[in-house]
Amino acid sequence: MNKLILETDKIEYCDPGSRPTGPSPAPPKAPALPRNLTGNLLATTSHEIRTALNSIVGMAQLVADTNLTREQQTYIDTILESMNGLIKSISYVMDISKIETGQMDIHDEPVDLREMCSTLHRMFRPRTAQKRVNLECECMSNVPLSVMCDERIMERVLNNLITHALKGTSEAGGSIKLSIECIHKSSDGAALSVHVSSTGSLQDLPEGGESAASRNSDDNLLISKQLIELMGGRFDVIRKTEHSSIYRMNLTLRQANRPAAIHLAVSDRVTTITPGTRVLLAEDNRLNQKVILSILRKAGCEVDAVENGEKAIQFISENRYDIILMDCQMPVMDGFEATARIRSLSEPKNNIPIIALTAHTMKGDKQKCLESGMNAYLPKPIGRQDLIDVINDFSKARK
Predict the structure, then answer these.
(1) CB neighbours (10 Å) of residue 221?
(2) DSSP letter assigned to residue 11
(3) In angstroms, rounded to a whole number, what is the distance separating the alpha carbons of residues 384 and 292?
(4) Is the same domain home to 88 and 118?
């Protein structure tokens, strides 16, 4: 009786007795995707995930503002907390892929490292209290008030290192210390030494040329090292004794010529938009359009919506607007072409601030938006308060 045997890309019939003996040959390895194809796939995946998350996060924030019972409030708080965790996890996975495909972008901005230390201390306080471990976060007085670096990446690295130190400090009464000091200053910037020390045993860096994506999701030391190197720094693990270790990061950061942005407490942030502000929203995704319209109208804003750049230009020609919220990827006419057309209009319509609301977050995307004539860039999923803040900033500047 003949049997059907599948061999990669062909089908053969053969007699069972004629089957060759010995070990089966190893299956052929799947060919590696070209670097540009991998980058395009990553960009598309990131865009689709962020677009969907924007609607979910926005609607959950709107529901949280309605009259809820205590039980309902607990449910929505859980959803929002879980969504924040999901967004961080997705960003982490995307960052690994961006590094490996050369798509990781560094966005330097003025950063207050003292404020970052305080934020990290507050963030870890519940976990350290639960383990009865003492945590200190200290930024020395010789560190410049404001330095130029990628705030998101710097905070992620420090968060990762403290997390690993906490895992290695299992006994009550242990201690962890984050310390940032300036070794010297020069025309190149401030040479900083960042230490995360622990009374526990810190994990060593993995040996060999292992890919960050191939490691366990909990083991993100390698990705931290790669992020530090992207910022031009160096990372080491120093073992002083069996029960005392230090993560050390050395890097030079330029001193900022302006202060870092002030991060207001939630209770101090303005949740309404300046009265009389008129906004045009250009967004083709129906759900995202619904979410953003609801947020803006609830904040007291007058807003119109269109689904492509061509209609945006038509509305601008016929109406007065203070701000334009522009999606980048739309049918008929995308946000980049629409921005170029708007900038070619006569005054004052050619000077209307244009804010990019986009799920494009790959290397160079922010710069592309700004170079096309847009004034600001907000990546999706967009925080409601971030949207209100940036509209108020530009609205006040125009009045």
Answers:
(1) 21
(2) E
(3) 8
(4) no
Residue 111 — φ and ψ, nearest 5°? -130, 135
Dmax of the chain from CA atoms? Answer: 89
Q: Please answer whether residues 200 and 165 qualify as being in contact, where contact means their C-beta atoms are separated by less than 8 angstroms.
A: yes
Residue 109, token pair as written in the block: 């901005």
d(CA 26, CA 24): 6
Domain with 41, as residue range(s), is 35-100
- Tokens 């003492």 locate to 134
Query: pTM for the complete prediction?
Result: 0.64
CA distances from 85 to 78, 147, 170, 269 (A): 11, 28, 24, 23
Measured distance between the N- and C-terminal CA atoms of the chain, rounded to whole angstroms: 88
**H-run or E-run covering 118:** helix 113-131
| Single-letter code of the amino acid located at 225 | K
Residue partners of 208: CB distance under 8 A and separation at least 6: none
- How far is 354 from 327, CA to CA, in rounded Å? 10
Judgement on whether residues 129 and 155 belong to the same structural domain of the protein: yes
**Do both 117 and 249 map to the same domain?**
yes
Could you give the CA distance from residue 224 to residue 376 in angstroms, rounded to a whole number? 28
How many helices (H) and strands (E) would you count in the chain? 10, 14
Any domain includes 26: no
Please give the full DSSP string across 168-198, using - where no structure is assigned: H--STT-EEEEEEEEEEEETTEEEEEEEEEE
- Within-domain flag for 81: yes
Region 184-190: mean pLDDT is 90
Is the same domain home to 124 and 177?
yes
335 within domain boundaries: yes
Helix H or strand E encompassing 109: strand 109-111
Helix (H) or strand (E) holding 221: helix 221-230
Least confident of 88-97, 168-177, 297-306: 88-97
Do 342 and 330 form a contact (C-beta atoms < 8 A)?
A: no
Per DSSP, the three-state class of 19 is coil
pLDDT tens digit sequence for 1-19: 444 443 434 434 344 454 4
Check: CB of residue 93 under 8 Å from CB of residue 104. no
Residue 218: is its pLDDT beyond 70? no
CB 326 within 8 A of CB 339: yes
Taking the C-alpha atoms of residue 375 and residue 397, their distance in angstroms, rounded to an integer, is 12
Residue 27, in any domain of the structure: no
**Helix or strand or coil: residue 86?**
helix
Tally Cβ neighbours within 10 Å of residue 322: 20
